[in-house]
Design brief:
With about 140 residues, the chain is mainly alpha-helical. The chain contains five helices and no strands.
């Protein structure tokens, strides 16, 4: 038990600060996880420029990652360079996003090749909203 307590204190600090640490972790996860989709969805609702949306989301994601890396460098007990920590996490994020972008492009090409997905097709509902509600409430 003493070995586990020492390991906890070495990595996370005093156990008395657990609630504060948990709140900070949850808030940082929610904020850094929600900012890029909010930028994409809210600020660019009427703009159809895909490249501009991609650049905006990548930039906000990188800013969030940089802030989280600075926070990690600040809380580390061993003296570690802020720049080294930020570069480490930004490079991991860029590699992961590059791999996911390439994989999604390959999957899209595969689906279009076999005709399972048409990027230019639009799905149209055959019934209007009023007609569906009239049928649902109609008495026989």
């Amino acid at each position: 038990m003493n070995m586990q307590e020492d390991r906890y204190q070495e990595l996370l600090g005093r156990r008395a600060n657990f609630r504060l640490q948990a709140i900070i972790v949850i808030l940082s996860f929610l904020i850094s996880g929600l900012v890029p989709p909010l930028i994409y969805g809210v600020l660019f609702r009427k703009n159809d420029n895909r490249e501009f949306k991609l650049v905006a989301v990548v930039a906000t994601s990188l800013v969030c990652i940089i802030f989280l890396a600075i926070g990690k460098a600040y809380t580390q007990k061993t003296p570690k360079s802020y720049i080294r920590t930020v570069v480490y996490y930004v490079s991991i994020a860029l590699m992961a996003s590059g791999v996911s972008y390439i994989a999604s492009y390959q999957i899209k090409e595969f689906l279009e090749k076999f005709g399972w997905f048409e990027s230019s097709s639009v799905i149209v509902m055959p019934f209007s909203k009023n007609r569906l509600t009239e049928q649902a409430w109609a008495s026989n």
